[in-house]
Amino acid sequence: MKERIYNFNAGPAVLPEEVLKEAQENLFSLPGVGMSVLEISHRSGTFDKIIGEAKGDLKSLLSIPDNYHILFLQGGASTQFAMVPMNIMPPKNKADYIVTGSWSKKAVKEAKKVGEVNIAASSEETGFDRIPTELNLSDDASYVHFTSNNTIYGTEWKTEPEVGDVPLVCDASSDILHKKIDVSKYGIIYAGAQKNMGPSGVTLVIIKDDLLERCPDSLFTMLNYKTHTEKDSMFNTPPVFGIYMIGLVAKWLKNMGGLDAMYNLNNEKAELLYNCIDESEGFYKGHAQKDSRSVMNVTFNLTNEELEKKLIAEASESGFGGVKGHRSIGGLRASIYNACPKVAVEELVKFMKDFQQRNG
Ligand SMILES: Cc1ncc(COP(=O)(O)O)c(C=O)c1O
């Protein structure tokens, strides 16, 4: 087997080779520190610099305005499904949710434990194959929640939903940093790191400071955003290694030319795969409607399950990992996050064309 395969996993997912090599080199001893990043105190000057640079680089990559806090928390995006409503649904105790897949549904389930949820739109009826175009927003919602990229179904919002003055909350777990966004349009953006930013175990939360007024003092300390903004993500021991890795990934993104350059590359990769699907005359069938297609997760099916199993087995033998669709919907999925090199996609397309020729 090759030392490294072409990795199309949905998350945890591929990381840039340069980042892995730097982490590997420094894992025994950080230059000038004499200890690994796994061994240093989070209260040390060394770590202060690591977390400061990670925040600074994210701030510049995403042009995050000064009135936003950047937090590194634990518990995954799934904990944010609960923290968002606990903290900012009061005092109105009502929120709008746009349901575009399983992750949005999980967010709704948690929000319902706090207050009233209005489903402003849902694409469930059509198998979550599209991004809704019509929203039925309530006039007294505390916020509107949406999932910018639907990892399982392979759909993605091309622009933010229009919600007027109501704070927009976004689960950006699977497309954060894949392009520039206008952060000032959002109240909260959260994302587990393990798809497009780093390893699992750290969750990025970007929160506008005026929302902190809503966080009830009655909340458990660790579940209150104010605890973490007041202590700059250092109320307790933060996920030191994950933050260090996010910092390396952010530096790598800057070296790659920033998010506009990355977005161009991401579009090129996605186009290769979608063209292969569209030109296959029905041998490969994309799950998402064309105008809702994700640039990060390309989902598709073959004409029958047997053939899908065969493709997955042969792909694995040929050095392609992670092309099996999510267990809840089956089919195939290639996750082509920032760190997935274009050559991996080119090779996958060659393999898919060859597979079609032999089995079509
Ligand atoms: C869009 C989205 N939201 C939330 C999650 C759950 O994240 P976590 O495992 O970090 O809780 C995932 C994937 O794992 C995801 O793809």
The biggest beta sheet is recorded as: 7 strands, mixed
- Average pLDDT works out at 97
Rg result? 21 Å
Strand order of the largest sheet: 2-10-9-8-5-3-4
Class from helix and strand fractions: alpha/beta
CATH architecture of the largest domain: 3-Layer(aba) Sandwich
Instruction: State the CATH superfamily name of the largest domain.
Output: Type I PLP-dependent aspartate aminotransferase-like (Major domain)
Strand content: 15-25%
Q: Which residues sit in consecutive blocks of at least 5 with pLDDT less than 50?
A: none
SS field, number of helical segments = 9
User: Which percent range fits the helix content?
Assistant: 25-40%
Order of helices and strands: EHHEHEHEEEEEEEHHHEEHEEH
Q: Label the overall shape.
A: globular
Distance between the termini: 28 Å
- Bound chemical compounds: pyridoxal-5'-phosphate
- CATH fold assignment of the largest domain: Aspartate Aminotransferase, domain 2
The total count of strands amounts to: 14
